[in-house]
Write a structure and sequence with these properties.
single chain; alpha/beta; FAD/NAD(P)-binding domain; D-Amino Acid Oxidase, Chain A, domain 2; 2 domains; eight-stranded mixed sheet; 10 helices; 32% helix; globular
C-alpha cells in the first residue's frame, strides 16, 4: 500500500510551464503550494509554438493537468525538404511523426488555471535559497523570508535552486543559435505551396550548416499561426559571446540583418517569404546551450524543466519534459512514504531521462547543424537510414517509433 508523503508546504520557484506543472503535481498530491514568479506580467502573451507527443497529450488530459478545451493542432508527418538551385523545394522524405502542436501561451494558461488561484504570486523574485534536513528557507527581493518543507526549482536555465543541488553545473554553448518567429497565417502572401505542406506536417528544410523547421499552432482565436525556427552558426564576424540570452540591440540588429540574408540563400523561396513576412516584434534569437547533471533532486530541493538538465531544442522536449516532470513528481509524492524517499525516486527516474535527452540533442545538433549531409543527394531511404543512425535506438519523445 502506498503511503503518501505527509502533506506539507511546497514552494515552486518559477511560474512558467514547468513551474505550473510542478505546482499542479504537488497540489494533486495533497500539499500546500506557493508559486513565486518573478515576472509581474501575463505569461500567456508568449505565443511561440511547442510540440508534445499524442500519448502525453492524452495522459495530461486524463490526469487533470490540461483542460479538454485547450486549442491544439494535430501533426501527422514531418516533411523533409531541400532548396534547389532555382529556389524551388525538393521533397526528400515524408516521415510519419504524430505529435500535437500547441501555443506556448495557451498551454501555460491551462496549466496556470489548474493551480490554486491563491497559490500563484507574480512579481515575486527569490534571490536566495538555503536548506537542511528539516526544510528550506527562501529570501525574496523584498527582504522577506519564507520556510517550506520542499522547494521545486522551475526557474529555468539560470536556476538559483540548481546551485543548492549542483553548484558546479554550468551550461555549455553549442556554437550555434536559433532564429525563431511566429506569424498569423492570414498575413502570409505568395506562400500557398508552403502553407499547403503545413496542413498536416511539420516541415524541415535542410541546408549546408543547419536546418529550419516550421509548423502550425493555434492562435487562440480559432485560427492558426506558423511557428518557425532556423538553426545555424552565426556569421564569423559577429561575436555573440557566451551569454545565454541576447540583450544588446546592436547585436540583435546585426544578427537580424545577417539571418535575413542567410534565409534567402538557404530556404526555398516560399519558406523564406514566411520568415520575411513575420513582424519584427514576433521574432527572437536564442543561443543553444545544453547541460547534464549528476542529480536533479536532493531533499529538500527538486529541479524541473530547464532548471534541471538543459536540452537542445531539436529534441522538441521542452514542454514534454515539463509535463513529464510534473506527472512523475505527483506519482512519487503520492507513493511516499516520506519526502526524501519520494525525491530519491524522482531523481532516479527524471535525471536519467534528462541526461539521455541531452545526448540525443547533441547527436541531432551534430547531424542537423554541425556536420550536415549533402541534402540534395538524399532520398527517402537514405533519409530514414540517416535518421535512425542519429537517433541511435532511443525511443524518446517525438522520436519514438511511429505508427504507419
Amino acid at each position: 500500500m502506498n503511503v503518501p508523503a505527509p502533506a506539507g508546504s511546497v514552494a515552486v520557484i518559477g511560474g512558467s510551464i514547468s513551474g505550473c506543472a510542478a505546482a499542479v503535481a504537488a497540489h494533486k498530491a495533497g500539499h500546500r503550494v506557493t508559486v513565486f514568479e518573478r515576472s509581474a506580467g501575463d505569461l500567456a502573451e508568449r505565443g511561440f509554438g511547442v510540440c508534445i507527443p499524442e500519448p502525453l497529450m492524452r495522459q495530461s488530459l486524463d490526469a487533470g493537468y490540461l483542460s479538454p478545451d485547450l486549442a491544439h493542432y494535430p501533426i501527422t508527418y514531418r516533411v523533409w525538404l531541400a532548396r534547389e538551385a532555382g529556389g524551388d523545394h525538393r521533397l526528400l522524405w515524408r516521415q510519419h511523426a504524430r505529435m500535437i502542436s500547441l501555443n506556448w501561451g495557451l498551454l501555460w494558461k491551462t496549466l496556470r488555471d489548474n493551480v490554486p488561484a491563491d497559490a500563484y504570486r507574480p512579481g515575486h523574485t527569490v534571490v536566495e535559497v538555503t536548506g537542511d534536513d528539516t526544510g528550506a528557507d527562501l529570501r525574496l527581493s523584498d527582504g522577506t523570508s519564507h520556510r517550506f518543507d520542499l522547494v521545486v526549482g522551475a526557474d529555468g536555465y539560470k536556476s538559483i535552486v540548481r546551485t543548492a543541488i549542483a553548484p558546479e553545473a554550468a551550461p555549455d554553448y553549442a556554437g550555434y543559435v536559433t532564429w525563431r518567429g511566429v506569424v498569423d497565417l492570414p498575413r502570409l502572401t505568395g506562400c500557398d505551396t508552403a502553407v499547403a505542406l503545413l496542413d498536416d506536417a511539420a516541415v524541415t528544410v535542410g541546408f549546408d550548416g543547419g536546418h529550419s523547421i516550421m509548423y502550425r499552432i493555434p492562435d487562440g482565436r480559432g485560427g492558426h499561426r506558423v511557428n518557425w525556427l532556423v538553426y545555424t552558426r552565426p556569421p564569423a564576424d559577429i561575436d555573440v559571446g557566451m551569454s545565454m540570452s541576447y540583450t544588446s540591440q546592436t547585436l540583435l540588429d546585426r544578427l537580424s540583418t545577417a539571418f535575413e540574408t542567410i534565409v534567402d540563400r538557404v530556404l526555398p523561396t516560399e519558406f523564406a517569404r514566411i520568415v520575411h513576412q513575420t513582424p519584427a516584434a514576433d521574432r527572437a534569437f536564442q543561443p543553444i546551450f545544453d547541460m547534464k547533471l549528476e542529480r536533479s533532486a536532493r531533499h529538500p530541493f527538486v529541479l524541473a524543466g530547464d532548471a534541471a538538465t538543459i536540452t537542445r531544442p531539436h529534441t522538441a522536449s521542452g514542454a514534454t519534459k515539463a509535463l513529464q516532470d510534473g506527472l512523475c513528481l505527483e506519482r512519487r509524492l503520492t507513493a511516499g512514504p516520506d519526502l526524501p524517499t519520494a525525491l530519491a525516486g524522482y531523481d532516479e527516474e527524471r535525471n536519467a531521462a534528462g541526461n539521455a535527452l541531452v545526448d540525443l540533442g547533441r547527436r541531432l545538433g551534430r547531424d542537423q547543424v554541425e556536420a550536415t549531409p549533402d541534402w540534395l543527394s538524399m532520398d527517402a531511404a537514405r533519409m530514414e537510414e540517416w535518421t535512425n543512425a542519429t537517433v541511435a535506438g532511443h525511443d524518446l519523445y517525438i522520436y519514438a517509433r511511429q505508427p504507419r
